[in-house]
Queue: 2 jobs
Job 1
Amino acid sequence: MPVNASETAWWRDAVVYQVYPRSFADGTGDGVGDLPGLLARLPYLAALGVDAIWLSPWYRSPMADAGYDVADYRDIDPLFGTLSDATALVEAAHESGLRVIVDIVPNHCSDQHPWFRAALAAGPGSPERALFHFRPGLGPDGAQPPNDWPSSFGGCAWERVTEPDGTPGEWYLHLFSEAQPDFNWDRPEVRGEFESVLRFWLDRGVDGFRIDVANLLIKQEGLPARASLPPDAPSPYEDRPEVHEIYRAWRRIADSYPGGRIFVGELWVGRESLRRYLRPDELHTGFNFPYLQAPWQAEQLRAIIDGTLETHATVGAPATWVLGNHDVTRVVTRYGRVESSWALDGVRVHNAPVDLELGARRARAAALLYLALPGCAYVYQGEELGLWEVEDLPPELRQDPTLRQSGGADLGRDGCRVPLPWEADAPGFGFGPDEGAAPWLPQPPAWKTRAADVQDGDPESMLELYRAALRLRKTEDSLRGSDLTWLESADQVLFFGRGEEFACVVNFGPEPVPLPAHDAVLVSSAPIADGLLAADTAVWLRRRAAE
Ligand code: NOJ
């Protein structure tokens, strides 16, 4: 059924599927996923039962950071297709009942963006340079970076340029790779440009935007060194209060379009801050990263669920629930580790011992847990197939700039970006046409058992579990509201009701526990025997009336 444009509140309880375009499906046979590939697989997504897709960047880009380095915000990269492929995709998605959210990357662009090239050419003090953060270096010959800010990818956040006359010159700020110069959001030209870019895509029918690093746009006046600030001072480049004006202006633009156009912010901020971004005149939703970061542990997850719901209730925004994305270790691998957080003390965990069978069992239970919570849920491509992190990629094939920039300390994010397996018996597991090039990253041979076609119709598969849960999310009225009531349960068990009739029980402990009284089992992540819920298993129940 086509999208119903009169359902303007669709986003309050939507399930959004993240498409990482280069790894979803290759329609042209060059080994890289693209829009024709995605178009051909839309029926799969519609049948999965999701409400919307979010596409990681599809814009023209030199791909220094897999498209998060944009050279033209109004065009599609030839690797993925053309602008008319994009508009055809939006139309076809709408016809299939899927809304389309696109990534917008406002903090930085590519060093190949015409504005940055013009800034390099124009030289110090020029209005072109004022659109970025250029500064002279420190020290007698300016050879030291202007301050001590670090890049998120490792190393320093400044790069020195060679001036048009060939001399070593100013430095520019890049909170990510040096191929991603940060815009200066104090300049009205930058604000005007992004408002125009939003309209460009809204005019082409997109239903919303995922805002890349939404909390980083504004930098503290004077770009003070961190070392010069008191230890408890707020960060000079994160979560600055002036950023909210930007989103208020964006919200007014989205609201001027029909059909419920929305924003979801990538916001690595604490709960109190998150609340501010989600005020009724700002962003509709923001990613709930504490949930994604938490280990597989009942008490911690319960505390996060409570905190999340309380925080969101104060501003009337729906919560979002996320198990993975293109930046973090896949959930099967995370939950298969003794210490199941994806990063410890801010450092990504690589190649720690993992029990993939345990991880898969927990990921199945985790799917039923997060899909039963009130609000929106995000599914990162391949989660519905039970894919794990590919940790043994040869270093020379890895492409994430993090590897180089961290000096090898962080292997990077390629392991969660490996192309999807569609057909067990086709070359490249059917990622592209049979006669096409091999997928851009090699898939583990063991993914044969994870291919979509072998899972299709197998009632024990992850794919069928997701399909069943997503079907029930649509038919169970109790899952629609914003309520959640904790019910009494044993230690290491989460048991909550939604509405009068629905309950979810998850056993995190090592021993089976008796199922609470119920009228029917709607779906379970593992077989239920003798009325017992086994370890690392979740179940959705029809509650007994008058309980
Ligand atoms: C967050 C994106 O999710 C990540 O993939 C990217 O590298 C950085 N922002 C920089 O744009």
Job 2
Amino acid sequence: MALHPYDLYDVRSLLDEDERAVQDAVARFTDERVLPIIGECFDQARFPTELIHEMAELGLLGATLPAEYGCAGLNAVSYGLICQELERGDSGLRSFASVQSSLCMYPIFAYGSEEQRRRWLPEMAAGRVIGCFGLTEPHGGSDPGNMKTHARRDGDDWILNGSKMWITNGNLADIAIVWAKTDDGIQGFVVEKGFAGFSAQEIKHKMSLRASVTSALYFDDVRVPDANRLPNVKGLKGPLGCLTQARYGITWGPIGAAIACLDEALGYSRERILFDRPVAATQSAQIRLADWARRITAAQLLSLQLGRLKDAGKMQPTQVSLAKWNNCRMAIDIAREARDLLGGAGITTEHSPIRHALNLESVITYEGTETVHQLVVGRELTGINAF
Ligand code: TGC
Ligand code: FAD
């Protein structure tokens, strides 16, 4: 029997019935609702807000959180498959889901009070409240411990000052999870749209993640009630704990982008006749295609094992760093090479590789650059902190 070209090791056979059903449902959504419009959204630098409601209906927002908060209660592998299938459409869609789920709903669930959970999570699962996550600052995102944004206690409130940069969903969001220095260490605050002194400004002229909203956030003496402070975490481990959740999903996403590029390049190289034979009949094209399949297969197995470790409560941040580094590198290299295999046709958004390649420039940078993840693995091996 012929092997599946995008799953040479039959990784799907390692999924249970529920996981396969999740993958199929999101794959259908991507094929029917995302792929027909996404090239144009990218051209127009427009995030398709019209899809938010459908993503919520499918249970894709906060998918791993419990049903009592209106969420789907899925396992980590299912969440990974959601990210993979969304990013097969576009990294912007996966970014939206990652930020809403792992960076906004997760900290409210993990660090928030019961009152905060009940207030925000059901609305966020339904897509009626959109979140963004403010950690990075203009002077250096890799070193968030050096943040300048600070909050000062004033009676029952806090007064927040500072700014955040490169914030996904910033101008879409109804609430921002903002990390700020206090006299008692770094703490997280739920800052609501409309609080006086809080503003968001969209970042224009992006050549990457064009179908996603990215913003700068400004806090000018913003008064935030203590009821909006996340009470159950202090220190950098708060935001870094959220990043571990989001980075886990990001290990899966680029697999989808790489599969989309392999799919396009396979189809194109079979049809394209040069020197009296299809490009796919040349040894150099086959070696490239085979090499992409090898790298995709390795990434699939890496993320699946990571997901199994996560579901068993055994996943370590260093393992996430290794997979985020490997899978982003795998996907960006494949996307760039697939663009080349399409020749001149590869430079327009008629075909997906250039869009994926450009998007992956952000994906390999955000949630910790490639260098940051290499140094995390190096620190694990040597016991020496090289940051
Ligand atoms: P370090 O001393 O290593 O750790 C401080 C405390 O945090 C704990 N910790 C973690 N906890 C959970 N998960 C992790 N991954 C953790 N890493 C560290 C650690 O145990 C310690 O706890 P405690 O109790 O001892 O205080 O901190 P460091 O200052 O040396 O930082 C190390 C470094 C460079 C790895 C860290 O700063 C880092 O990861 N930098 C990169 C920043 C980053 O990734 N920013 C991403 C911003 S959000 C984003 O990009 C969203 S894009 C989303 C989208 O659109 O999809
Ligand atoms: P810098 O930290 O200034 O890094 C510059 C260069 O220095 C990089 O090549 C880096 O690898 C290298 N470097 C860093 N440390 C070392 C070292 N020790 N040794 C050698 N080299 C080093 N942030 C949020 O908080 N929320 C979001 O929603 C969000 N969304 C984003 C969306 C997009 C589209 C993008 C592009 C970014 C987003 N970010 C977000 C920010 C992202 O996390 C940062 O861009 C990233 O962490 C890197 O920070 P920086 O851009 O300031 O680069």
